[in-house]
Specification:
It is elongated, with a radius of gyration of 16 Å. A two-stranded antiparallel ribbon has the order 1-2. With 93 residues, it is mainly alpha-helical. The chain has helices spanning 3-24, 28-49, 60-92, and strands at residues 51-52, 57-58. A hairpin with a 4-residue loop joins strand 1 and strand 2 (57-58).
């Protein structure tokens, strides 16, 4: 079993777990966490698809996309957590 296959299977597993959690959970914090897991699963699959095992060369374009995606993910997570806190605080009043 090659390392590419391991990353593909692990990424697909993370995608499946995250989609299942998004579909079955109503808690806001758990849904935000599931979105983070979904993004990491996509990043794993994208990174694994950029590697050519025949030559051993890795394509830098998927790596740049994943790095950009991580930066965007951090910003979106911060915004979602702030929004969830504000929504949770307004329901207590």
């Amino acid at each position: 079993m090659t390392s590419d296959l391991v990353y593909h299977v692990a990424g697909a597993g993370l995608l499946a777990i995250a989609l299942w959690r998004l579909a079955t959970c109503r808690d806001t914090l758990r849904r935000i966490t599931a979105l983070n897991v979904l993004a990491i699963g996509i990043a794993m699959v994208l990174l694994a698809s950029g590697h050519d095992p025949a030559t051993g060369v890795t394509n830098p374009v998927p790596q740049a996309f994943v790095l950009t995606g991580i930066v965007v993910l951090v910003a979106v997570t911060a915004a979602l957590l702030a929004l969830a806190e504000r929504l949770e605080g307004s329901s207590d009043e």
